[in-house]
Specification:
The chain is mainly alpha-helical. Helices cover about 45% and strands about 10% of the residues. The protein is built from 6 helices and 3 strands, in the order H-H-H-H-H-H-E-E-E.
Length: about 120
């Protein structure tokens, strides 16, 4: 559930609900309702939370376990620079999805999933 990840992020940073609410310019009771799943988190608050914790909105929404896209993109670039296709053996693997490690060979269309439990939810 989304509220669990929001609460965990706050606790990881050792922030109080009062502190986060003040950063978001909302009432602490309203923030508490977001964190406890009583109210849906509006998109503008979701974006501000992602900035506060330096994580993607997809991470907060539990669509991925990728916390920091800079690290993710660095990893993707390293894979594209070095990964050989398991089918044709060429170094033509291109990243095909912004939320996981799926690569497709531009020579033979073979796909490879380079999942990492550190980043991908599925």
């Amino acid at each position: 559930m989304i509220f669990q990840r929001v609460k965990k992020l706050r606790e990881d940073y050792e922030y109080t609900q009062d502190f986060v609410a003040s950063k978001l310019k909302i009432n602490r009771v309203v923030y508490n309702r977001y964190e406890n799943g009583i109210r849906d988190i509006p998109i503008d608050i979701l974006i501000e939370l992602s900035k506060l914790y330096n994580v993607s909105t997809c991470y907060i929404l539990e669509q991925t376990n990728i916390k920091n896209y800079d690290i993710f993109l660095r990893d993707i670039q390293e894979f594209e620079d070095t990964l050989l296709c398991n089918q044709c053996g060429k170094k033509n693997m291109k990243h095909s999805c912004e939320q996981n490690y799926l690569f497709i060979c531009s020579s033979c269309n073979f796909s490879m999933d380079m999942k990492s439990t550190n980043y991908c939810k599925n």
